[in-house]
Structure formats: C-alpha cells, structure tokens
C-alpha cells in the first residue's frame, strides 16, 4: 500500500448507528479511519424511512459533525411524504446541494473538511453520483462508483418504470456515463458483473464487495436467551423481521403465512415486524382485517439497537418478491445482522449464491408462497432447541469468516489503491 489518503463517500441515504437504516458506508469509513484514512460522508439529513429531517434544525442548511472519527456532512433536501414527483424533487435537490456545498464547504466549514483524493459515490439515486463525478473533476480526485440497487433495472423489474420509456432511456444513459468514467466499480451483488458486462464494462474494473457486519455491536448477543419457548407459560416462539416495509420486501407473504397458522389453530407463535416504509400502513390494516392476534408491528430502531432487539427472536425471517433482478444475487444488511446474532434464518426468496444455503444456517422456501413459508415456520418451531442453536452458530461463523467489516475493508483498500493507477 502506498499510503492513506482522504476519501469522500457520497450516499444520499447514509446514516450513523444512532439512526435507523443500513450503516454500510459508516462501518467501512470507521474501519478506514482506524487505518489512517480521513473519511468524509456526504448525506441528506432527510430520512426516507421516517419522512422527516432527523438531523438539522429548521434554520440550518448543512451541518458537519464527527461520529467516531468519521466526518459527516449533512445537507438539507426538499421533504416529501409520498413516493411520487416530490421524491424526484428531493433526489434532484440533494444532487444540486451536494455539488454546491461540495465546492464551498471545504473552505469555510468547521470542523474543516479535507479535500478528497478519491470520491466513492453510491449509485442510488443516480443523480448524486453525477454531482460527485463533477466534484471529482474539480478536485482532480479519483472517481469510483458503488452499485447498490441496479438502477434503472430495479425500477423496471418492479413495474415502477416501463422498459421502453424516455425516463428509463435517460437513466440508462446516465448509468452508462457514470460507470464508464469510474476508475473502479464496487458491487455488493455476487453476479452484478454479468449486468455490467452487458453495459460493456471491463471486468477488471469491477470489484465485488458484499455487505458486512460490525461484529463488535453483537458482542454478548450470540447466546441469546436460554429459556425455551413453549408457547404457553414461558414465552411465545418469536419470529422477527427487521427492515424496510416496502414493495420489494413482500411482507404480505409473512402475514398470509401467519393467517394460515392461525386458521390451523397454532397458538404461542408471535410474529414481530420492526421497521417503517410506505407499505406499513397497508400491512397493519391487513393484519387488523384478518384479526392476526400474534402479529406485532414496531417502529424503526437505531442500527445500534438491532443486536439487542434480535435477542428476542427465535427465528429471523425475510421475504422477497419473485423478481428477475435477484438473478444477480442478494446481499442484504438484515441477513448478515440475523446471522451475526446467531439466529436461524428463514428466507422466502430465490437467488443464486444463497448465503443461507452456503452457511447452512436456516431454511429457504420459494418467494411469495405463504403455504411453504407457514410449513417452514412449523418445521423450525418443532425442531429441537439445540438444533436451532446449531443453525445460528453456523451463521455466526460464516459472517465471521466472510462478512466481518475488517476482512472486507482489506478488499476496499485494494480497490482504492488500484484506482490510483
């Protein structure tokens, strides 16, 4: 390694552990700081989960604060309450604010913002990386892109945008523009290289860097609660989902499975859904209409509280829609949190390179199949406690070996160094 430097990370929805949401950018930034790097994260102060400003006071346009050695630059962006044209305005406004303040704040803000040697921009939404590209040109910094969801392909596969539409064509052109000008392209999905090859991106510029876990947060969680759930006098058997309540999460499937179990007379099973999102009000109405007594909804919690929250769970579950985009694999924060907490995992989804199957830490059933999900829940419920614990231990061992943040940071450092060439 030729030495550390200054990295700017751009992600509109980046958060700290004190906020709800995924902390991938913060976790890598904190580890880079330990290794001598200076890291600045540029993010919006508006939470897309809570639909409100969670950082700035009404009279602030921006704020710079240090969180465990990482500088965060919070920028105000136009608020919205529904995923309509107002969210588009929010996205465009953040991109403009990023470029505007990215040119001004390094020379006037306190604490001082160091100028970048490299800028790593998250690809969702695509307009913030465009602003980051022009900032990189201004500062003669290396420009790198991190691909999250495959925009606009995700929007097409989910039916948000038609395959042939002027906006889709414009987003595809912007996507190609950014990827072809990036020194390195970081991908979290194991088969995203196939998608990028279709855009004529050279494979040697693509770096696979899956999501990871800060295992220090999970200290003491692995053993959990030694009480055995019996559904009667001790405590209910708890199935927990932690994450966004959006269209892609297919939580209807989980509620339908709960309905099947209730109709069959199974009691003592509690299903807890933790988080927020645009689908949550509808899901709550559905649970009331079906009179699902064992279903409990909770609000989103700060990322730092997730490990202790998972101590309540006997099984951790996540559901996916049956979408073509999952042919590129999955790498979800919640999955690795579940495994780090040592909980057996039940996945209702279809994807190649399935981490649950690789780690042998749980069960997988087809997506959007409530009957199969209900049967799998029963199978795990009836499994001897020691067998469930063995599943959880294998999941924990798997993330220690393959998804610990220090392990993955070595790969990120190689990417940053290769980008200097």
How would you portray this structure in words?
The structure is a single chain. The protein is α/β, with parallel strands linked by helices and 421 residues long. It has 2 domains: 222 residues, Rossmann fold (3-Layer(aba) Sandwich), CATH 3.40.50.2000; 187 residues, Glycogen Phosphorylase B (Rossmann fold, 3-Layer(aba) Sandwich), CATH 3.40.50.2000. The protein has 14 helices and 16 strands. The strands form 3 sheets. It has an 8-stranded mixed beta sheet. A 6-stranded parallel beta sheet has the order 13-12-11-14-15-16, sandwiched between helices. A two-stranded antiparallel ribbon has the order 3-4. Helix 2 packs parallel to helix 3, helix 7 packs across helix 12 and helix 10 packs across helix 13. It is globular and about 65 Å long. The relative contact order is 0.12.
